[in-house]
Every structure is written in structure tokens, then in C-alpha cells.
Amino acid sequence: MRKNISLIGVPSDIGAGDRGATMGPEALRVAGISNMLTKLGLTVKDTGNLFGPKKPEGTAIGGYRHLRENVIWCKNIQEAVFSEISEGNLPVMLGGDHAMSIGSIAAVARYCASVSKNLCVIWIDAHSDFNTCDTSPSGNIHGMPVAVAAGYGPQELLSLGHAVPMVEAANIYQIGIRSVDAAEKQLVVNAGVVTYDMRCIDEIGMREAMIQILADVAAKDAYIHVSFDVDSLDPTIAPGVGTTIPGGLTYREAQLCMEMIHDSGRMISLDLMEINPALDFQNSTAKLAIELTASLFGRQIFPPHSHNRKK
Ligand SMILES: [Mn+2]
Hints:
Number of helices: 10
CATH class: Alpha Beta
Helix content: 25-40%
CATH topology: Arginase, Chain A
Order of helices and strands: EHHEHEHEHHEHEHEHEH
Radius of gyration: 18 Å
Bound molecules: manganese (II) ion
CATH superfamily: Ureohydrolase domain
Shape: globular
Number of strands: 8
């Protein structure tokens, strides 16, 4: 894994229904993200925050809320993330609402294409985020980024990528899903996104789910972009999100997921998304996100399978 980490703050709530994800990047800094990564032996550069339009009032136009402003944000993100990843750094986007991942995935997909490497996306979320203007009840673009990455969406967003789709749907692995709109469900199935929903995690367990996903990624010899929406976690441990859905990932399920992604050695970029301090309790959700991110970057209780465990 790359050892030079570039933090990129994206204080946007432009794609969300609720206000407040604009404070996410600061919450992650206050919770100590730089310090944690440095302690793991990594070199950390905080590039500061990107700028973009503030959220205007208003409802959806043509099925999209604030499409023009979303495009400006995602274009800025695409440029910043591409620049960092091209210099050999590992970009970590501090969100911000999840629509911003359109920008980071556009950048990472462009980079992978430029070095002739396959890309897989591990999308950890309560929602599929696979709406289009025809299926979205709200028009909020943070419910659409996976659809855009897979080639479904408005031209203004699709054209941020090097190609359409940015990522093949079959290379997108979703974990923690438990809230999908009815019409959206059909799109996810038709597109061929790989879905490990909460029932699946209940039935086979996180370990088996990750073994399957990472074996698939290894067979494709791909880099991994991790897009982590903190609403994937159970709301009892992660209250600071706009769209809490019961029945989410437990602390240990999430930790094991992160630990196993780290062990693959394939992660090339990361989004930490949808932390909303306005809805949080004493910054606990940002602190939890830092705990999980530490595992993603190699913090271990013991080296796996190396100590005096009974065979
Ligand atoms: Mn999401």
C-alpha cells in the first residue's frame, strides 16, 4: 500500500437532503485523523479544503436537486484527487455528502485507465445510492453516485469520467445495504452491481463476505477504491448521519471488513463520507470513523494468525 497519504477536505452538503455534512472534514480532523495515520508510520499531507458553491434553496429541477452546483464540486474533486493519486499519493477524501464520490471515482478510474490497471469499488453504505432522476423520490444527488459511476445519470456528471461507465457495475461491491427504493432495486439488479446486503451479512458473516469479494478482486488483479458512508454502521454506534437506518453493521463487523481490505494490499484511495456533526453526539461518529480508518491503514491487535492461537 502507498505510504504517502493526502487528506482532501470536501465540505459539501450540496447532494444531501439535510444540512451539516459541510462540517464533516473538520470533525474528522478534530477527531485526530492526521495523528492516527502518522502513528501508523505513514506520511500525511493535509491539503486543506476544496471550495465549491454553497447549498441553494429549492427543489428538484428535471429530477435533480442542485445539479449545476454538484458538477462544480465534483469537477474540483476530480482534479484534486487525480493530481494526488498521479503523484503516487493515496488520496483520502474527508466528506462531505456522498455525491462527492462521483468526483473521486472519476479521478481514480481515470488514473487506473492511464496505468492500465483494473479498478474495483467497495461501497460500504446503508443505501445502494443507485437512483436516477426517474427513480429518486427526492432528487438528492447523494442517492445517485453509484449509478453515475456505472454509467447511468445526467451527461454533466457522466462526462467527468474518462469513459462511460467509469467503473463496470460488476466491479462495484456493496456492503451493508438495507434501504433501497423500489424502482432503484430493479436498476441495481439489471446493472449487475454485486450486493452484500445486511441479510447476506447475517447469513454468511462478514468474514465470508470479504473472502468472496477480495478473491474476486484478486482474480481481476484490481486496485480498490473504498467509499465508506458512515450510515452503513448501526445508528446506535454512529448517530451523526443524515439518514439513519436501523440494523446496520456492528463495530466488529465493520472492523473486520476494514482489516481484511487492508490485508489485501490493494486499496489505492478512500472516501470517508456523510459525517454530520450537527446530528452527532460529542463527535462520536467521527471518532468511530477514525477507529475504523486505522484498521484500513494497518492497525492490528496482533498480526493475523501469527500468535499462540489453538490450531
Ligand atoms: Mn451513501
